[in-house]
Amino acid sequence: MRSMKRSTFKVAFFLKRNALRKSGNMPIVARISIDAATVQFSTKLEINPEAWSVALGRVAGRGGEALRINNTLDSIRTALANIYHEQHEKGNTVTAEKLKNLFLGHDDSQATLLQLFAKHNSDSERLIGISTTRSTYKKYDLAMRRVEEFLRYQYNLSDISLKELNLNFIRDYELFLRTNCSLSNNVAAKMIMFLKKIVTLAFNNGMISSNPFANYHIKLNRVDRGYLTNEELETMMSKEINIKRLDQVRDVFVFCCFTGLSYVDVRNLTHSNVRTSFDGKVWIMTKRQKTDNPVNVLLLDVPRMIIEKYSGKLPCQLVLPVMSNQITT
Predict the structure, then answer these.
(1) Domain count for the chain
(2) Given 6, 66, 120, 172, which is the most exposed site by the fewest CB atoms within 10 A?
(3) Which residues form the Arm DNA-binding domain (predicted)?
């Protein structure tokens, strides 16, 4: 029987020098090369760069830590070689990416994090206007892209098996959000909440046997939002603004102050929500988007004048020219 041509196969280890830990250590990365293609993945080991031999691709010396790490690196090299030869014996085409996935345990038959994330987001997009909003969908879309960035940065992976998720993964993701993405504590916490929902979904559907978030607590800092005094609000209202866009933003903000309605509730207002009640007074009658609870607000003089300012000038019977406050990067 004619034997298959062997491809060039090599495994090497090196330090990820742009990911210096606070301890002074650097992560050890494995590189698989098959023919002209290469892929990398984290060995989940780290060492002080002064103890690393670049020429040997392993820890220098014969101390306890050097032996422990070098033995693990040898085990990784041996396991990769065994998988590579096994696939060749079966007559399968072996690529660097496929070999990495087989070694890490997330072949095509296993559910992955980004696959589940993408399905969740696709389902959410179809429910816009039914049980969710476009702004909520965009937040989940951004959250998935953050996870993609993290996987490439931390592990040089395009995806990861759900079964590989653990507490360290979550903590490393939090550190990535706080440092690489420069997010504040509360914004990072909200990104992690989106990830938690996806992981909990996997747990509830039996895709993973344990929830890595079980021992992780999301901490939100209390924020003092402050308030405007009557004098400050009067100053804002009397300020002459010649830029149309800023004038509209000011009007919407003042309207929110006098009605107590949230940004999204004001954005959804149409003239059908402005009604004269049995008492002869004009009220805003609507529902909170977030809770779907009904809310009735007596229309005072200031918000009434703002409504009149834009009456008949906006499409779809909208009350005010509310601009989007969504920022996606």
Answers:
(1) 3
(2) 6
(3) 13-100
- Residue 100: exposed, middle, or buried by beta-carbon count in 10 A (0-12, 13-18, 19+)? buried
β-pairing, 58-59 vs 274-276, is unpaired
**Domain closes at, from 188, 204, 220:** 204
* φ, ψ dihedrals at 13, nearest 5°: -125, 145
pLDDT given for residue 106 in this prediction: 59
- Specify if 120 maps to a domain: yes
DSSP annotation of 128: B
Structure tokens at 183: 């997010």
Q: Same domain, yes or no, for 196 and 251?
A: no
| Helix residue spans in 132-289 (DSSP H) | 134-155, 167-179, 185-204, 230-238, 244-259, 263-267
Give the integer Cα–Cα distance in Å for 235 and 185: 33
Dihedral sign for Cα atoms in the order 40, 43, 47, 53: negative
Q: How far apart are CA 118 and CA 141, in angstroms?
A: 8
How many angstroms separate the CA atoms of 141 and 194, rounded? 10
Which band of pLDDT confidence, cut at 50, 70 and 90, is reported for residue 158? confident
Last residue of a domain, one of 104, 126, 155: 104
Q: Measuring CA to CA, how many Å separate 62 from each of 50, 58, 59, 67, 117? A: 14, 11, 9, 6, 45
Fill in the DSSP letter of residue 142. H
**89 and 170 housed in the same domain:** no
What is the share, in percent, of the chain residues with pLDDT greater than 70? 94
Edge-first strand order for the sheet with 9-15 is 9-15, 26-34, 37-47
- Give the mean model confidence (pLDDT) for residues 101-124: 83
